Amino acid sequence: MDSTTMAKSRSKYANIPVKYQGLGFAAWKPYNERSEAALTAVQGFLDTFPQRCVSEPPEGSRALVGQGIAFVGSPGAGKTTLACITGTEVLNRHDRSIFFISYADYIAALVKQNSLGRLIDKGDQKAMDLYWAIESMAQKVINYPFVVFDDVGKEHHTRSGFAEDEFDRVLRARFRNGRPSGLSSNIPFEEWGKIYNPSMESFVREAFVEVAMGGKDLRR
Fold this sequence. Notes:
Blueprint: H1 3-13, H2 33-47, H3 49-52, E1 68-73, H4 79-94, E2 98-102, H5 103-114, H6 117-121, H7 125-143, E3 146-152, H8 162-176, E4 181-185, H9 192-195, H10 200-207, E5 208-213
Parallel strand pairs: 1-4, 1-5, 2-3, 3-4
């Protein structure tokens, strides 16, 4: 198996969308100053990944421990593309497990899992299998060295605040345990306190390098 085929295979296992599987730096074509700065930010993130993803207290500075990278900006700016490239480079350069998931899909899966109890109580094997498949996914989201949450802000919000509370819980748990996250979002950080909770804006500024993107719509 050649290196390209191997990269695509590992990307598939990491749940990276087919469109982006196996993409590395060579696939990113900067189209303005922001997109060039974004590539520089990714390179810096990757160079310092071992200082960000740790399992025990490091020697020296701890400023980067748990700190991830967030691609924020207008639709079609290439945020998901660059997030997937970052994940693939973590996978290939640092040989660390990664996982990609739309945050809306993550929340939908947890809601589905919570609805399976009655069927499981009746001995429904398919419901039980689905429950544990979702649980396996949830464990990856918490425990994998690098997880990309795509399209943050597009998840369904309810009066219960489940999506908001879960987002806060997952990001803080990963950051606290020295596991950096990646994310893409159309929502600038200054609005996160209104959408999630008042402390979220302050937290994400500590827990992420914010990479501002925008200008050209690459989908057109």
